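Loading example: each entry is read as two labelled lines plus one structure line.
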Amino acid sequence: MLGPVDYVLWVISFLLEAGVVVCAVYRKDFFKYLSLSSYMLCAALVNCGQFLCIQRFGFSSKQYLYTYYYTESLLTIIMLCVIIQLYQHVFVEMNVSRYIRGAAAILLLATALFSYAVVRENKDHLTSRFVVEIGQNLHFSGVVLTYLLWGAILKLRETRTRLIQLVLALGVYFSATAGVYALRNLFPGLQPSVLRWMPPLIGTWLPLAWAYTFYKVPEDARLATARLLVRAR
Amino acid sequence: MMIAAVIFVFSIAAFLQFFVWHCRSILASSRRVELSDRVREVTGIQNQNFGADDFRRLVQLVRLCPERGDDQGEIRAVGTYYSLLNVVGRLARPTVPSVAAWAEQERENCSHFAAVALDRRISYSRDLFTQQVADRL
């Protein structure tokens, strides 16, 4: 059963996601960061859809369970498109968009094949273990892709503060979510008490950080990435 | 189980790195900002740089000023980063002094960030006061 805290987190998430879209439109960056804005729009719509699903079928229903996990997986796939667009922003001067799109298509195909293989292996307990496993794998591939993107930003000495902050916020989100999914796989007993609060809490981080970046960091702000690296004296 | 454990360890390591870099990118925006004399007057600190331990006091002073409405999130994020640095500093002091020194330097940057936030809020309060006086006249 959902409590007041669940509903508060839900409303906060929805408002923040809508806030990112509003900030992007307000700063006239909606089309420049199209996939990112679309992702936030979809996330807000999914929030509404899940709420309607609970109202209609109930929190413990199978319909809600399927809706929740599969919309989350779909959102993660859209998120991969966001990463691809961020890659395109970073490599914009190298004219390699074609190769990035090709690599992205291969990656999506590989993820689909891998998921299919896991589905075949887990026919008997599809909704219980599989959804956690696929969530963990999708988010972990997000961590790896974001890490590689951050490496490219450092290597190319990218200085656009907005792009840097968008990528770092994404890295925090993916790594925290992948960690929580892995923890759920390792200790399923922790799910009802502690871990059930983590995904909604982490879910508020990304729209909060992105809304902050769009609202506060101007497009022409610059930052030397070398300053961000941790160096012990 | 093995894969989940590997993913967990890698994710936590990546999370800490990304979080530190994100906080440093927020701190970097204030690093070059010169502080006004007003901040030194209000805090009673006359040194050129604020000390690592001044952060909490500076944040308390920031909270006493009227909110600007746009800096709460970053103050909270830097506050969390500062707490993390406290833990890292304490753990590293006896074992890895270079990491402890780095944590100390980062805590100083956090203090400078809080001082910049305080400076902005003082300016904002003065503007509000001037506006109110002008409205009454």
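The longest helix of chain B spans residues 97-136.
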